[in-house]
Design goal:
By secondary structure, this protein is mainly α. The protein has a single domain, classed as ABC transporter involved in vitamin B12 uptake, BtuC. Helices cover 69% and strands 7% of the residues. The protein is built from 14 helices and 4 strands. The protein has a two-stranded antiparallel ribbon. A hairpin with a 5-residue loop joins strand 1 and strand 2.
């Protein structure tokens, strides 16, 4: 039982990332009808927003510390972060320690701006083009963004630690009545799941209970009729593209302590997340979230040593096998709508 609970927790962790990226993908497809293969790159850029802010906060100047000497007795040179000069020892240490959560505020305007530039500068020209053209151009854009990140940050993963308050593991077993140290789970992974649930809930609440969201949902169902009412639906859809970019970016920001950012992490998540979107049903927001968590949990169970010993390599293909089975029995996915991506 403890192994099952641990794998469910691992699945919720993976599923949170899949669901967040798939949610953004579905928002873009549902509003603009664009299959955006550059969405994984937005997840990557979000992660590197956290890396960038961490580096900015940790930037320092060299000073001579008379109280410390080297082995020859000479005063030592030490690095003093600028934030320590500006905010004091405790304030500077706090900013350095909490760089990843603070990156949320840093990433939101950046991701919205990048999303707006992508949509206005490139993607709007492909609204009425075939989906194959959209896939090719956005996939090419993803490769360009990936190479830009590689040029400026290098090819190696960049460790970005969580705040010290969330380092270590939570004794989840004691909470459920098991013996101490039976089920240990990292604090930050629990934080990531809670953060994902908050973002997903916020997006659904925004679409369901705000006038802006109601108009967007109406535009997703019947764009022409909404336009005839005198509403500038194109501008609202552009804003939704920026929101979808921000969702992907925030998913990347908070994922940095779990998986050190590297230039190809966007591609790694994109393929799996696109499978999630197809399994959930193209254009279905609830379907994308449901499929994200479902496939995350299945992948986690398939990664158990007992399962791998029985069926070697199953953890690498389980998501695709499940996708094939679901699409054979439900061609539109779990919650897909009739007419979406159907000729």
């Amino acid at each position: 039982m403890d192994a099952i609970i641990l794998q469910i927790l691992n699945g919720l962790d993976k599923g949170s990332a899949y669901a967040l990226i798939a949610l953004g993908l579905t928002l873009i497809f549902g509003t603009l009808g664009v299959v955006n293969f550059a969405h994984g790159a937005l997840f990557m850029i979000g992660a590197f927003c956290a890396v960038t802010l961490s580096r900015l906060i940790e930037s320092s100047r060299t000073v001579i510390d008379e109280s410390r000497t080297d082995f020859l007795g000479n005063p030592m040179e030490v690095q003093v972060p600028y934030v320590v000069d500006w905010f004091g020892e405790s304030g500077g240490a706090f900013l350095i320690d909490w760089a990843v959560p603070l990156s949320i505020l840093f990433a939101i305007p950046i991701m919205i701006t990048i999303g707006w530039i992508m949509e206005r500068g490139l993607i709007k020209h492909f609204y009425k083009r075939p989906h194959a053209d959209q896939i090719l151009v956005t996939f090419g854009l993803a490769i360009v963004l990936q190479e830009i990140i590689k040029y400026f940050y290098g090819a190696n993963p960049i460790p970005t630690p969580a705040p010290s308050a969330f380092q270590g593991s939570f004794d989840f077993g004691v909470l459920l009545g098991f013996d101490p140290l039976t089920i240990l789970y990292p604090y930050w992974r629990l934080v990531y799941f809670a953060f994902a649930a908050l973002i997903i809930g916020g997006v659904f609440a925004f679409l369901q209970f705000t006038t802006f969201g109601m108009v967007v949902r109406a535009g997703m169902a019947d764009r022409e009729t909404v336009g005839l009412l005198g509403i500038n639906i194109d501008r609202r859809f552009t804003i939704m593209f920026g929101i979808a970019a921000a969702v992907a970016g925030l998913a990347g920001v908070m994922y940095t302590p779990i998986n050190p950012p590297n230039y190809h992490m966007g591609m790694d998540f994109l393929v799996l997340s696109f499978v999630v979107v197809v399994v959930g049903g193209m254009g279905s927001l609830p379907g994308a979230v449901l499929a994200g968590f479902l496939l995350g949990i299945l992948e986690s169970f398939a990664s158990m040593r007992e399962v791998i010993d029985l069926i070697p390599g199953i953890n690498q293909v389980i998501i695709y096998l499940v996708a094939i089975l679901i699409l054979l029995t439900r061609p539109r996915g779990l919650m897909g709508r009739k007419g979406v991506m159907e000729e």
